[in-house]
C-alpha cells in the first residue's frame, strides 16, 4: 500500500508527457503576426517546395535550417511532419515544410520574409 503514492505520481507524470506542447506559437514581428518555433524564432515557407516535400538541402539548408521535429513529435492540426531525404522529420504547415532564417537573431525578427521572392514568413 505504501507504493500507491509513487504509482499515482508516476501515472500523473506519464499522462502529462503524453500531451506534447504545440510545435509553434504566434509572435508579433515588424511585419505583423508570424508563426514561430518554441524558441520564438520566425518560421518560413519556401515557394519551391511542394506539399509534403522539402527541396531545401545543402547550401540552402545552411541558410534556411529546417525546423526539425523530435523522434516523438506528432502531427497536430495544421502542423504535420514531412520526411526529409536524410531521414529526419521536418515540421510543416498545411503540408508546406517550415524553416528558420540564419539572419534572424531574436524573437520577432522576420528579415527573411520576401527573400528572393521565394521565402515567406509563415502567418497564422
From TrEMBL:
A Pfam family this chain is assigned to: Lipoprotein_15
Key word Signal present: yes
Keywords: Lipoprotein, Signal
Domain of life of the native organism: Bacteria
Gene Ontology biological-process entries: alkane catabolic process
InterPro entries: Lipoprotein_repeat (IPR005297), UCP029720 (IPR014558)
Cleavable signal peptide: 1-20
Name listed for the protein in its UniProt record: Lipoprotein
Organism encoding this protein: Pararhizobium polonicum
